[in-house]
């Protein structure tokens, strides 16, 4: 008696589905794998080079702050991690929207692989903020609006990562995770404007004031280079995870097809 074939995973489309604009030309897994095969080595090399240059500039050539002294160097990790935590979640919301509306076949995979990386950078944001806050504010943690809203963001990242893996059917998990991600996006403007809406320990925006940034260029430029380097690392890591997930799914589909052929021949 032959053994039953394993349940089929949600297939990756071989052709681009309708709607959703030009992004669907990357829906073909073979095209995506060919593109990332050429792109990833260059992206990793550029990310390491820019991050190394930014770290050296921030640690050895940027001046200490006149009030915070050498402690200000935590900023060169903390601020980029905060930007990536929010920007990455915005990307998660976009991928979830594409999954729910246009059924983009790579959107579910991208969202699934993005959430662990997003949780990691948000955890680094919270950890470095705690390390920075202890000498500046005299406490490791204060339940002000920004810190609390970023903590909520961390729980949203972790919740999404757990939810999409909690179902036997990948499609159900992807749909539940997409709904959670879109609801959680409400937290992003709360984080951004919490320092203006509430009385918090955090200072108001100093980098994003284009007309008159509240930071000297000797600190601003290395911060921006560090942010670019960490962003490139983030993108390379997510792309590598998505590529590995696509290859794994294709391998499972090939194994399933082989099992069905063997069952049919038995």
UniProtKB/TrEMBL annotation:
The chain crosses the membrane at residues 39-61, 81-102, 114-133, 145-164, 176-195, 219-242. One of its GO terms (molecular function) is heme binding. The lineage of its organism: Bacteria, Pseudomonadati, Pseudomonadota, Alphaproteobacteria, Acetobacterales. This is Heme exporter protein C. GO terms for biological process: cytochrome complex assembly. It is a multi-pass membrane protein. InterPro entries: Cyt_c_assembly (IPR002541), Cyt_c_biogenesis_CcmC (IPR003557), Cyt_c_biogenesis_CcsA/CcmC (IPR045062). It is found in: Cell inner membrane; Membrane. Its main location: membrane. Residues 47-202 form the Cytochrome c assembly protein domain. PANTHER family: CYTOCHROME B_B6 PROTEIN-RELATED, HEME EXPORTER PROTEIN C. Residues 1-22 are annotated as: Disordered. Keywords: Cell inner membrane, Cell membrane, Cytochrome c-type biogenesis, Membrane, Transmembrane, Transmembrane helix, Transport. Required for the export of heme to the periplasm for the biogenesis of c-type cytochromes. It comes from the Bacteria. One of its GO terms (cellular component) is plasma membrane. Belongs to the CcmC/CycZ/HelC family.
